[in-house]
Every structure is written in structure tokens, then in C-alpha cells.
Design a protein that fits this description.
Layout: E1 2-7, H1 13-22, E2 26-31, E3 34-39, H2 41-50, E4 56-64, H3 69-77, E5 91-97, H4 105-124, E6 137-144, E7 147-153, H5 175-185, E8 193-195, H6 202-211, H7 233-245, E9 255-259, H8 262-275, E10 282-285, E11 299-302, H9 316-330, E12 335-340, H10 343-347, E13 355-361, E14 364-372
Parallel strand pairs: 5-6, 8-9, 8-11, 9-10, 11-12
Antiparallel strand pairs: 1-3, 1-4, 2-3, 4-7, 6-7, 12-14, 13-14
InterPro entries: DNA_methylase_N6_adenine_CS (IPR002052), RlmKL-like_Mtase (IPR000241), RlmKL-like_Mtase_CS (IPR053943), RlmL_1st (IPR054170), SAM-dependent_MTases_sf (IPR029063), THUMP_dom (IPR004114)
Organism: Trichocoleus desertorum GB2-A4
Protein name: Class I SAM-dependent RNA methyltransferase
Length: about 375
């Protein structure tokens, strides 16, 4: 059994514990911005392929006491790097956290890299080149009061970058956060899903992938573990085949998205096409004033601009009031979820929320507000 750590956005730790357990992980324990778990190589590949919430899945190699640069160098050299890295493979070292003496992540990463390549020079008379963009082996160093944790990053590019979304609007929601919001809402695929401010379509697309049981990792070009020395191509291909055979053919209930901006609707359609769900999902150019509920009940979901990047110069208060009026007058029998990073604007909605869940959109504290529309 290997030890792993899935990193997630702050506040989503309980959700990722639930997701990892559903995927078959053992000994799952929440930590800061993630969860530790145990499992074999099959589980590692499966979690990378299926998990909707994490950014990265790290495989722990070693933990040791570490206060100074000397401690770090010595500790890194206790690992036999030839098990993970040969001189013809490129590497990159990423460092997080700090102590009083190791308080600069760039220096920490450099010191760790030196310890690795010095060992290689001694062993092989040759060393790996550093490649920051697409390294063959990505090494993660985390420093805290417990010491230094050394891990390999099995994911490569962050898992939130599904690969289906080359086209994004001006203030895109991360795919992993969209999946988390849908999870938090308790929405079920049997309920209609409608986002009247859908932008480039992230919320409806994530709902669609969940509803059709499509693994989010299927759209990626590669995972980090594919260039590891112990990479098992047959295992990964088997898991991909299994994932593809478990997809559903049709949605149990409609999933819609609309937006007044014709360009972002074009992007949403392009993203749906990349996902292979264009024939399942409905996107349309429509102003909020024209929006009406298509059925008697369902879940309406939206992430309106909150003045951080979009709509800074427009009268957002009036827009939020209009959103509240549309929901109140035209969506009776529905449940609404609105993500807002601006409390004053949220009050302009003019509806009483039945629940508020604190979440972070990047570093911005937000609230996912639930409204029962009678």
C-alpha cells in the first residue's frame, strides 16, 4: 500500500474524503487543503481518472525532520532516486510551506534539486535536466512543523484542467470548484439543471459529466505518472476502457445553459463538442430578462459576476435584483443555488436563503446560497 495525498481547494476537505472513499481509497484522513489516503497503483490511476474535486494526487516517498537547508539536503539524499529517476528523464521540483530557516520556497526547491542531481552525478556520472513545463518526474517538497514530506506528483497538470475547455470566458470557474458546488447542492441527475448565466458552460458541463457518469480524466492528454519508471500502460488502458463502457447514453433529465453573450455561448458549445455531449446539453443565447423556467421543477444554478473581475463598472446591484425577481416570479417550485463573493450584492437578490455554505473561489471567500422558490 502506498501513501497518497489529494490536494483540494480550502474548505472542500470533507467532500474530497467522501469522493476518495467512493473510489475505493483506504484510511482516508482529512488534512489542510486535502486528504491523505492509502492504496495501490490501480487506485492511483483510478483516482486521477475519476476524481472531480482534487487538483493533484501526490505519492508520498519519505518524511523526515527538517529545520535547515542542511537537514533538507541530507534528508533528500537518503532517498534512492534511481528508483524514480534516470538521467535521461527530466525533473522539476516544486516546494510549498516553510520553517524559520527555510522560508523561501524557491530556495527550498533549489536545495532539493541539488541533492537529487548530486546523487545522480555520483551514481551515474550524469544527471537529469530541469524542465519546468512538462517534466517527466515532478517532485513535490512540503515543509512544515512536522518536517519535510517528499512526494511525486502523479497528476502532471492540475486535474481541474480537464482538457475539454480550451475556450473560456473572462472569469471562468475552475472545473473542480464547479463539480464541488454541484456536489454541495445535493443536485441529482433526475432533476433538471439550468444555469441562466452559464458563461463558457462550466457548471452545466460538469453536471452533464456527472449525470452521464463520464470520468473527467478522459479528456486529458496525459497524467504525470505516464512518464514514471513503473508506468503500467495496460493497467491505464484497462481503466479507460472500463470508464468508457460505464458511461450512460442519455441524460435522465435536461441540462440547459444560457447567457446573453453570444461569444461565450459559442465557447460553451465548442466545449460541449470536445466533451462529446453536444447532442445531450442545450446552450442558447438569451438575456436574463427573457429567461423562464422550462419545467415545473428543477435546480437553477448560477455564478453571477461579483465585481472582482467582471462587471466592475456596471450596476451590479440592479442586475442582482433582476436575478432575484426572475427566480421569484418565474421559477416557482424550483431550488436555486447562487455563488456570490459579495455580501452586499447578495442582499440585492431580495430572497431569503434557506442555507449558506462557505466556499473559496481561488482565494476569494464566497457563499453558496440556497433558495427554495415557492
Amino acid at each position: 500500500m502506498n501513501q497518497y495525498f489529494a490536494t483540494v481547494a480550502n474548505g472542500l476537505e470533507p467532500l474530497v474524503v467522501q469522493e476518495l472513499e467512493q473510489l475505493g481509497a483506504h484510511s482516508v484522513k482529512p488534512g489542510f487543503c486535502g486528504a491523505a489516503f492509502e492504496g495501490d497503483r490501480t487506485l492511483l490511476y483510478r483516482v486521477n481518472l475519476w476524481a472531480r474535486l482534487p487538483f493533484r494526487i501526490l505519492m508520498k516517498l519519505r518524511q523526515f525532520p527538517c529545520q535547515s537547508a542542511e537537514d533538507l539536503y541530507r534528508g533528500i539524499q537518503t532517498i534512492d532516486w534511481s528508483e524514480y529517476l534516470t538521467p535521461d528523464l527530466t525533473l522539476a521540483v516544486n516546494a510549498t510551506g516553510k520553517t524559520d530557516q527555510l522560508n523561501h520556497t524557491h530556495f527550498t526547491a533549489l536545495q532539493a534539486k541539488n541533492a537529487i542531481v548530486d546523487q545522480q552525478q555520483e551514481q551515474f556520472g550524469d544527471r537529469s535536466n530541469v524542465e519546468l513545463q512538462e517534466p517527466d518526474v515532478q517532485i513535490n517538497i512540503h515543509i512544515d512543523r512536522e518536517g519535510c514530506t517528499v512526494s511525486l506528483d502523479s497528476s502532471g497538470n492540475s486535474l481541474h484542467r480537464r482538457g475539454y475547455r480550451p475556450a473560456v470566458g473572462a472569469a471562468p470557474l475552475k472545473e473542480s470548484l464547479a463539480a464541488a458546488l454541484i456536489q454541495l447542492s445535493g443536485w441529482q441527475p433526475e432533476q433538471m439543471f439550468y444555469d441562466p448565466l452559464c458563461g463558457s458552460g462550466t457548471l452545466p458541463l460538469e453536471a452533464c459529466l456527472k449525470s452521464l457518469n463520464i470520468a473527467p480524466g478522459l479528456f486529458r492528454e496525459r497524467f504525470g505518472f505516464e512518464t514514471w519508471l513503473d508506468f503500467d500502460l495496460n493497467l491505464l488502458e484497462g481503466l479507460i476502457q472500463e470508464a468508457e463502457s460505464n458511461q450512460r447514453d442519455t441524460l435522465p433529465a435536461p441540462i440547459w445553459g444560457s447567457d446573453r453573450d453570444a461569444k461565450v455561448i459559442e465557447q460553451a458549445i465548442a466545449n460541449a463538442q470536445t466533451c462529446g455531449v453536444l447532442d445531450q446539453i442545450w446552450f442558447s443565447e438569451m438575456d436574463l430578462s427573457e429567461v423562464v423556467a422550462p419545467t415545473d421543477s428543477g435546480v437553477v444554478f448560477c455564478n453571477p459576476p461579483y465585481g472582482e473581475r467582471l462587471g466592475r463598472d456596471t450596476d451590479l446591484g440592479a442586475f442582482y435584483k433582476q436575478l432575484g425577481d426572475v427566480l421569484k416570479q418565474r421559477f416557482k417550485g424550483w431550488t436555486a443555488f447562487i455563488l456570490s463573493g459579495n455580501k452586499e450584492l447578495a442582499q440585492s437578490i431580495g430572497l431569503k436563503s434557506s442555507q449558506r455554505i462557505a466556499v473559496y473561489n481561488g482565494t476569494l471567500p464566497c457563499q453558496l446560497m440556497k433558495y427554495e422558490l415557492y
